[in-house]
Amino acid sequence: MRKVITTILPVVVLFFLGCPPTWKNACKIYIGQQDYENAKKQALEGLKIAPDDYEAYCLLGKAELGLGNYPEASKSFQTAFKKDSLATIKWLKTDENGNNVSAYWQIFYNTAYKSFLDKNYDEALVNLKFAQRLDQENVSQYILEGNIYVERGEKEKAMLVYHKIIEFDKENAEANYFIAKIYFDKQKYDSCLLYLNNSIKTFEKEYTKYKSLLFKNVEFNQNLGAEIVKLWKLGKKDALDQFVKVKLGYDDGLLSHEKNVEKFVKENEGLGRAYYLAGIVYLNTKSDTLALKSLAKAAEYLAEDIDILYFLGELLIRMGKWSEARKYFEKLVELKPDDFPAWFYIGVSYSQEKNYKKAIEIYEEKALALDPNNVEALTNLAYAYREIGNTKKSWEYIQKADKISREKK
């Protein structure tokens, strides 16, 4: 009997020696139960016992991910890489049979994006390098990398990154757009327009695709599209759910169509930005007709963009299209009531149409309320009063404008 015990004892001892530590088992069990707070506690306990154990940091990172703490998860995985880079990358790519790779990529990408917004560009680039080790082909990370270089003033580096995307995705709308922006900044307008046209083609194709998916049951119109965009940007999911049910005719609401809505909004935004930049290029090259066409297209997609509304209105004023210009400026002041230039141009449009009383009302009650000493508004008021025969008021405003002009010299 003693011989039997002596024979199996080493096996039993070896079995327990080969088991993961208690804290590690407990951590994995808690993760499996989605009890991430306790999983985190066990991982931290493990790090006290085995501070150089890369897997402890991986498990801590996984727990932080479950808690939605992306920056903390990123730090944990980065530390794991420092402890054992090869083992860590293998762990990340094989955990749960590789099903968590996209989630781990998201940790690094989201942390990079947050760092980008916080203008912590070095930290953002570090996280992107880790993201790229998990997925070398995801375009989003390269777009973000290029944008970081642009913000740091390293536009040549940004150009290299964007062109890298073009190498394996020639029609990528965002890469083409950002290359165009760099050429715009360099005032290389022909090259800018070349890449802008590529961008617009792809944005148009994708926009049409998602528009068709959303508007199967009803006829599309720009107002419905704009409402979808507005509700999405405001984060009004409940209202959007009702909109999808009632206006688009889908009984299942947003639940089954959220991805298509998100894509529709993204392509809508992209198209608006691309047409706007094209409009500004044409303004800079004195091609007013083409500028008007591009800016009007931009306004279709970004109906509440103040810059688009302003440049459209200003261009139409220059072209002598007073009522059309006023339409855009009136939309602008609905969005931004304290915009002096918009009110000024509304006054100009009425004056040019010889509606002097309305021009006077706009200048006195709106424009001068925002900028009482604006010489141009005072001078225009003097002209309007003269045209309706009120020479006294006209003379008052002329004197005031003259006095301010002399004081400024």
Short recap of the structure:
By secondary structure, the chain is an all-alpha fold. Among the domains are: about 15-100, Tetratricopeptide repeat domain (Serine Threonine Protein Phosphatase 5, Tetratricopeptide repeat), CATH 1.25.40.10; about 315-409, Tetratricopeptide repeat domain (Serine Threonine Protein Phosphatase 5, Tetratricopeptide repeat). It has 22 helices and no strands.
Give short descriptive properties of this protein:
409 residues, mainly alpha, Serine Threonine Protein Phosphatase 5, Tetratricopeptide repeat, 79% helix
Q: Would you mind describing this structure in some detail?
A:
There is one protein chain. The protein has 409 residues and is mainly α. Among the domains are: 84 residues, Alpha Horseshoe (Serine Threonine Protein Phosphatase 5, Tetratricopeptide repeat), CATH 1.25.40.10; 92 residues, Serine Threonine Protein Phosphatase 5, Tetratricopeptide repeat. Helix content is 79%, strand content 0%. It is built from 22 helices and no strands. Helix 8 packs antiparallel against helix 9, helix 16 runs antiparallel to helix 17 and helix 17 packs antiparallel against helix 18. The longest helix has 27 residues. The N terminus is likely disordered.
Mean pLDDT: 93
Tally of DSSP β-strands? 0
Kindly provide the radius of gyration, computed on alpha-carbon positions and rounded to a whole number of angstroms.
Answer: 31 Å
The percent of residues in helical segments reads: over 70%
Strand % is under 5%
**Biggest β-sheet: count, sense, barrel?**
none
**What's the oligomerization state?**
single chain
- The sequence of SSEs as H and E is HHHHHHHHHHHHHHHHHHHHHH
CATH fold name of the domain at 317-408? Serine Threonine Protein Phosphatase 5, Tetratricopeptide repeat
Q: Which architecture of the domain at 317-408 does the CATH hierarchy give at level 2?
A: Alpha Horseshoe
The first-level CATH class of the domain at 317-408 is given as Mainly Alpha
